[in-house]
Amino acid sequence: MRAIIYHVATSLDGFIARKDGSTDCFIESGEHVDDYLNQLKDYDTTIMGRNTYEYGYQYGLKPGHPAYPHMNHFIVSDTLSFNNSHEQVQIIKRADLCQTIHQLKEQVGSPIYLCGGGQLAKQLLKHQMIDELIIKLNPILLGDGIHLFDGCCDGFQLDHLHRINYSNGVQMIHYRMQYITEEVAI
Amino acid sequence: MRAIIYHVATSLDGFIARKDGSTDCFIESGEHVDDYLNQLKDYDTTIMGRNTYEYGYQYGLKPGHPAYPHMNHFIVSDTLSFNNSHEQVQIIKRADLCQTIHQLKEQVGSPIYLCGGGQLAKQLLKHQMIDELIIKLNPILLGDGIHLFDGCCDGFQLDHLHRINYSNGVQMIHYRMQYITEEVAI
């Protein structure tokens, strides 16, 4: 069974982006970035919400094209459509989210990179579908923005797996999600 | 000049309490708690918002009495009043906040313990009055609640001073606030 790994930069106050989705507030150079780019190579599949995908447009991403050339993309949206969709890019309707994710997890392949954002992460957490959480904790405060999880349920604990402390103050902290109750209906 | 230290437990997603102010979600035993209780002995003065103070009532705190017997208390509120106020407990009106804090910082004494909550922390951060931040980062997710800072301004960076990793997954991380722009008018 492939793991879904929510792998994301956070501020000390728990935000993964400013309110407008921008992420240039995070420390964008250093050893932690090199490690992150290397870790991305290990994922062959990514799942993300529409806002997260479309945020790439300002960096040259073309609608319907993969944001990460070596990954298959599953974009969760009821309203998104493309004129020309690349074979590596599929749109998942919200109603089909659980079924699609179950199928994806049963396929042979790498762990699945949950790219964000907080709304999708919350949905997947409620369905107990997130297996691991890797945060790149940046020594910054945003005060406002997009939350790591846009609300979430109880019924799990985080088991610490691994931590790297970088000299620039960033920490990479890796947890396994341990679900301790039955799935919560939503 | 006495430092103001915002010393507070946070979840991984940046909350210092649930929405109702409760904090029993944080890990309440272990070496990090012993260390925290020892650190509290080093403060002779605390400043907190009304909600933070009144949260103590359910644990037996009597209105007007000190929450920490060895500290002088400054409670920021325009509406709070006590029938009988202990000599260690004073109420500060919001309009007098800056002046009172300036005076306090110039007095001889220990660093000042900023106990919370997020609204007061934001006000003090905007006035560049917080000197250090100590977070007890708990390996939990709340999804919603009271933010570490209830919104904040730019114009500072966090210099990492010290970190303790506890075996239960809690981290104590200590930062110095480094203000890099002029104070923002509010």
Mind explaining what this structure looks like?
Two copies of one chain form a homodimer. Chain A is an alpha/beta fold. Chain A folds into two domains: 1-7 and 18-42 and 119-186, no CATH class; 44-109, no CATH class. Chain A has helices at residues 31-40, 50-55, 97-106, 118-126, and strands at residues 4-11, 15-17, 45-49, 72-76, 89-92, 112-116, 132-138, 146-147, 156-165, 171-179. The longest helix of chain A has 10 residues, at 31-40. Chain A is globular and about 45 Å long. The two termini of chain A are 24 Å apart. The mean pLDDT of chain A is 94. At the A-B interface, strand 7 and strand 9 of A face strand 7 and strand 9 of B.
Hey, which two chains have the biggest interface? A-B, 32 and 33 residues
Distance between the termini of chain A: 24 Å
In percent, how much strand structure appears in the residues of chain A? 25-35%
Number of β-strand runs of chain A: 10
Oligomer: homodimer
Choose one word for the global shape of chain A: globular
Largest sheet of chain A, described in full?
A: 8 strands, mixed
Class by alpha and beta content of chain A:
alpha/beta
**Unreliable stretches of chain A:** none
Count of the separate structural domains of chain A:
2
Tally of separate helices of chain A: 4
